[in-house]
Every structure is written in structure tokens, then in C-alpha cells.
Structures
1.
Amino acid sequence: MQPFHSSSDFTSTIGDFARGRGLRDRALWPRLRILDGEIAAEQLPELYRAADAFVLPSRGEGWGRPHVEAMAMGLPLIATNWSGPTAYLSEEVGYPLQFTLVAVPERMGLPGHRWAEPSLPHLRQLMRHVFERRGEARARGAAARELMVRKYTPDALAEQVIAHLLRLEAPAPTLGRDEL
């Protein structure tokens, strides 16, 4: 994993966060396994199978490859409902996370740009919901996989491209004199 504008010492960052909120006894912390190195592609299916949901509250995605990989593995998705994921994320296949659009901090050097600030209370609510309603979450994960297979496999995408090219190739309808 490569950090984006942050430290790569995730264990210390999590520890500082927990201690800053009064959780000094590590035994009280949630069970976490931090994967801070690169994961081989052939290990990803096993990682996805070990999860109940895929959760990625981000500020924006171009497409969201990890999102669609997890969905293809049958996991329900909890993700920021903005940017790339809006092409495939819905309440039928996952859990769209509320957000607020905010200005990108000046230190980033992107004046005029905005990104999503995921709602932490809504994230907590969605994660609790998935935990308490596992059957519903599994059903959304199954629907997520069906969507990925139906619309986003190489063959399905090729069919969509061909159909689009055929529409472009078709002659434009001519207008009759009375339609001008």
C-alpha cells in the first residue's frame, strides 16, 4: 500500500489515534491486521473472501478498481457516493456513503478544486447496519457480483463498445421539409 500524502507508519498512526481518544489499553482496540505492503494479485481473492464488506470512504476516485474487484467477489460495497463509484454504486448492490463537497486544502496546490469529505457518522451507521444485517449485506454482495458480471466483464464491455460504434456508424436520420 502506498500512502497518499501521509505517513506509511500505519500502526503508529492508529495507535496515536486510539490513545488520543482515551483507548490506552491495546486489548480494548478492535482486532486489526494492517497490510502495509504490496499484495500479489493472486492473493486478492483470498483477502476479499475473508471480508464481510468492502469499505473505502475516500475523497474521490477515478473509477475505483478495488471497489469493482470486491464487488466482483460478491462483497457489498460501502463507499463515498461521489465521482467514479457513482457509475456502479447503488443501494441495490452496496451502501452509498454520504459526503460533503469541500475545497481541497491550499497546501495541495489545487486552487478551485473540491473533493468529497465522507460523513463519519453515516459511515459508522452503515458499518453497524452491515454487521447487524448480514443476510441483507450478503444479498447486496450477490447483486454486486451479478452487476459486475452483467455489465463490466471484458465481454460485456466489448458488447457495449460495439453497440455504441454501430450507433455512430448508422446514418443520421434526415429531416423532412415540414420538420425543419
2.
Amino acid sequence: NLNVILKNLSHKEKEGDYISFLQEKRIAEARQFLGRHCSLLSDIEKAYGVPKEVIVAILMVESSLGKDHGRYLVFGVYTSLASMLDRKVRESVRREAAKAGIDINSPAFKKRITSKATWGLQELACLLRLSEKGKVDPFRLKGSWAGAFGMPQFIPSSFEKYGIDWDGDGKVKLDRLPDAAASVANYLKTHGWKKGMGPAGALGVIKRYNHSQPYADAILELSKCLKR
């Protein structure tokens, strides 16, 4: 899918991508969600030391609290990206990118094609491992154009490393709140979240979840609003 490939190659994060999540309507929605699930989220906070407000903020920004997991077949995203390892596919991508006004001769673009193709193959292999173990159905799993899925928008390798079966039913289900929230908390704790850490430390850990500064700023600001 050339459209998926071009989006992955050209996308750049902007501060404006996250402004809507700090509007009063979205804050109120997140606050109501936090109230409805306070007992569960408090238990997860106690277990991992990650504030429930931060968990809810991430779930809101990533998937609108589970309402928008994405419409792309995750298997298709990664096979498309991995296909760029083939020379003929790369040539097709370069032609389409040039038509879209992308500078295909820049060193950054050439490097991005290689890195995205290699990454896509690694995530595809991980997705197939998860399938072999019966953890996901790769032919039904839908997510974002970037290959992320579930309430917390994990990629396959994050699912494999940090997914938590909080409700104890024997399967990690990122489309269900208990497992999704615990998996977010586990990810953040594993990447250095400590109880009572300051804003600078919190920003650093959140940027391990998503490398975007505007994203991290929005998560912290929304979590502050939820604490008030």
C-alpha cells in the first residue's frame, strides 16, 4: 500500500496535533472516564507507581479512550513497509514520493526508507511470533497507519515486551481497559517512571512512549487537568 508507505515516510509531529485533547470537552470526557474506572485504575497505580491520570491521558490521546483503534490492517502496514527492502518497490516509492513533492534525493529521505523498511520487517516478524503463540490474529487486527493497535496503540514488539494480563484470563487484550491500562503502566515503569518524580523526569519517560515533544507536553498537561 503506497499510501501507507508514504504516510510513514513523510509524517512529522506538530504541536497542533494535540490541541484538541486539551479542550474542555475532551478533558471532561477523560475526567468522567477516570471517575467510572477509579477503583481499577487506583489498583494499577498502586501496583506500578504510575498515576492513574497519566494512564488515562495516554489512553485519551492514543485512542480517544478506546473509541478509535484505527482502521488499517496491521499486518498490511508492516508488509508494506518491509516490502521496501525490495529494489523495485523502493523505486516505485521514490516515484510516488517525488509526485507528492517529497525531496527524494535528500540523505534524510534515503535513510528513512532503509530504517522504516528494516523496522517494518522486525515488527512483522514479531507480529507473526505473536500469531504463532495465539496472542493475536494478524489478519483481523486493525490499528493506525503506523501499525499501532489497541487502546494504548502498542506496536507488536511493545505488546510482546510490556503487555500485561491484568484481569487474569490468560490473554493480553489491549482492546480492554484492565489489560490496556496495566500495560501502559508497565511500559512507563519499565522505562524509568518513579513515584513522585518531577516534571522533567516524567517528560523524559513519556517521550520513550512517543518521541514527540508536543505529545509528551500534551500528556502531562492533560494529566494535570485531571488531577485538579
3.
Amino acid sequence: PYYFPGARPGVAELKTAHPLKLMHFNLFGKVNHHTESVEAAIREEQPDLLDLVEYTDDWRQKLEESGALRNYPYRVAGQNHIALYSKVPLRNARLVYAALGAKVANQANIIAQFTLNQKPVTILVAHPASPILPSHLTWLQESFRTWEAARGKLGQNLVVVGDLNTSPWSV
């Protein structure tokens, strides 16, 4: 309602015989140390796809040691920032850098494909810069422009997930 006051935006539904459960966490990695809560949520919900942002080596180690990620054989991760864990096979899983024109760890995004009910689906996991400084706002806007320009290449069925650091007045 904040983005589309008075109107319900149309959302294309991918009709599925088997629903897909997706879970997103911004772990606030260097400050948040409540790994037990995250482990419990993953075990309880058992999502098919799990994306994590602000994902540090400490978080990875603790979640691996706890066994919470045991059921996710398909994985792609950026160094100290972003990860996607999946129970369903991923194809063409890769890190992309939407902003800055350089490989800056906290500007990495993940793009991967999977099949759902015999239909190809692309997932984009993102965590663009929070617009707290003018340079960060520029990075955020550049990320959105890059995704918009790439939209046609990402397929008909696209899922965008993550901490997008947006509000109606920020982009």
C-alpha cells in the first residue's frame, strides 16, 4: 500500500502444484549473534530456498556446525555478504555485481535458475547499499537500473528477494 496507494498491484502468479517456500534473512552479521533463533526458524519452516544477507564467515560456520544447512545441497555464496541455499537444483548460479562496476563484496547479488513444475524460474537475491550517504544512494539507484536493463534476459518467471533497502521516498 505504501508503493501503490489505493490500488492492489497486479502480480503474475506462477501456478504450481507444489508450492515453493522461500525464506529471507538479513542477519546483520557483525552485530547480531542470535544464531540459535535463526537455526530454529530454518528447522521449523524448512524452506526450499533460503537466502541470507549480511552473512559473515562466523554465521556460516555456526549454521554449518549446527546442522541447520544440512538439507541444502545446492549453494552459492559471496564472500562475507550474501548466500543462497537450495533444496532444489540450481543452474547457472553466479555472483553478479550490479553497481560500482567492480567486485565489491557488499554489492554482490546472486542470480540462479531452477525448475518449478517444469517451468524455468530465475531468482535474483540482492542487498543493495542502504541510502544513508549520497554515494550509497547512487549505488542503490545504479543497482536498480542494472536490474531493470537485465530484466528481459532473466526470463518470464522472476523472483526478486532480499533486503532491497527501499522505501517509497528512497529510490
4.
Amino acid sequence: GKKEVELLPTKISDIITVSCEFLLDQYKSKNVELVFNSNHLEHIQVNLDPTIFRYNILNNILTNALKFSNPHSQVIINLFREDNFLIIVIEDQGIGIPKSMQESIFDSGKKSTRSGTSGEKGTGFGMPLAQSCTLKMNGTLRFESIDQSVSPDSHGTKFFLCFQILSDNKSKNAA
């Protein structure tokens, strides 16, 4: 709440690329592969605050994905277009979020921190901050998760970020 949100036309794929490069050494040190598939949507722009998006939203989700992943697994980022919306899906094959924590993961007033797969610590403030910042930029953030204790063979978490796409310059020029 200390910095004003400044919405700017932004190519989200550029920010994701920079974040992936920034976090690559952390991922390598835990032997987790970080994969980004832009699916030919590099040109799409959305209105957001690039700094807040990178540090308060994207990096929080990507560091949590790493924290709860086991070595020799992957964290995959995919971009999808659905009508006038760009959807960023960040999927890990980690231990998942227990049902008991799922309802309060975005609530800053409730404890939602636990140790990572290698004993990493957290504050419990990352996801409430990511949710708050996403809403301030007129986006949505939701997740689906399957806890490892419920499904030992198929578990992990998917985060879905959704932002409205700015109108394409191509369609403006064609008119």
C-alpha cells in the first residue's frame, strides 16, 4: 500500500522472461527446471504496473512454486489468450496446498506459512500481497491445488493470472 499503482501498456512476456532469468540460479541450485512457453503471444500487451507485477505478484508465485517443489521437477509458465484476456498459468509439480490452507491463502489475517520441501521459510504475506496487487491492476488471481497427501502420484498447484488485453494495433491500422 506504500507505492501507487501506475498502469502502463506492458508486454507481459518481457517481464516473465526477466523474472525467469533473475530466478534461474535459485531454480538450478534446487535442481528444478523453470520453463516459459509464450505460445506466440509475446506481442500482447496488458495494462499493469510492471514493477509491482514482477516483484509482488510473479516473483512471489515463482518463488513459492520453487519452495514447494522437489528436485528433478518442473515449474511451467504458459500464456493463453481467451477472448480479450491474457491468462498466465504457473504450474508446479510440488507438494500442493492442503485443503485446510486453501481458503485462507489470500487472507493476510490468517497464518498460511509452512516450510518448503528443503526447509525453506516463508512469511505468509506473499500470496495476500500478490492477490491485493493483482486486484489493484484490474486482474484476477486464483489457483487449483492437489495436496500430495491426498494424491501421491499426481499433485501440485496451478496459479491463474488473468488481465484484459489492450486492443491490438493491427486491428486499429486495418480500420
